[in-house]
Amino acid sequence: MKMALKTAFLCTLLLTAGCGFHLRGTLELPPGWDSIAVSGDNPNGELQQNLVSSLQSAGVMVVEDADLTLHVESEEKSRRNVAIDSAASATEFEIELATNISLSDARGEYLLEPTRIAVQRLMNHNPNDVVGEAAEVRTLERELRDDLIQQILRRIRFLASSDANKT
Predict the structure, then answer these.
(1) CATH number of the domain to which 58 belongs
(2) Residue 14 placed within a domain
(3) Is the residue at 71 inside a domain?
């Protein structure tokens, strides 16, 4: 029994390693990218606060006066129906969370032109569970915000690595 369990574990390990799976890891930035100023339309909003926390937990110093400035606009939420039933009632809808970001250097030149980043999720609509659906929407929006932040961090990582490769 122990041998079969060890064999199954080893096979699983080899399959996940063979497919290229690896943990996301932390945000690793080259020298010169270790401090960033974050500005935005809503500095006390959840998006900007969570983004600052994510940058800080990745070892980036978020200061007011840095060589790099990340500008984050307020998040935009939208909801649209994607499926309706025979009575023309929505049965499924899409929630989208989006923001515009840009990254500039100390001279004000864009390293990343103003760019729209958006994430979407589908959700089933249950007219009989209004309270549960409202809680599910809040949870989904929180997850979307986390995904949006991860996309922003990936853009910064890409820009930093391409900048490091130039020098």
Answers:
(1) 3.30.160.150
(2) no
(3) yes
Residue 159 burial by Cβ neighbours in a 10 Å radius (0-12, 13-18, 19+): middle
Give the pair of three-digit tokens for residue 95.
Answer: 């929630």
Q: What is the pTM of this model?
A: 0.77
Asked whether residue 11 is assigned to any structural domain, the reply reads no
Provide the domain limits for residue 92.
Answer: 27-166
94 to each of 29, 101, 121, how far by Cα in Å?
Answer: 34, 23, 6
Instruction: Using DSSP bridges, classify how beta strands 76-84 and 61-62 pair: parallel, antiparallel or unpaired.
Output: unpaired
Confirm if 22 and 41 have CB atoms less than 8 A apart.
no
The total domain count for the chain is 1
Pick from 121, 143, 144, 123: nearest CA to 133: 123
Give the β-pairing of 61-62 and 90-104. unpaired
Q: What is the pLDDT of residues 75-125, one digit of tens each?
A: 999 998 888 788 777 788 899 999 999 999 989 899 999 999 999 999 887
Of residues 18 and 133, more confidently modeled: 133
Domain presence at residue 5: no
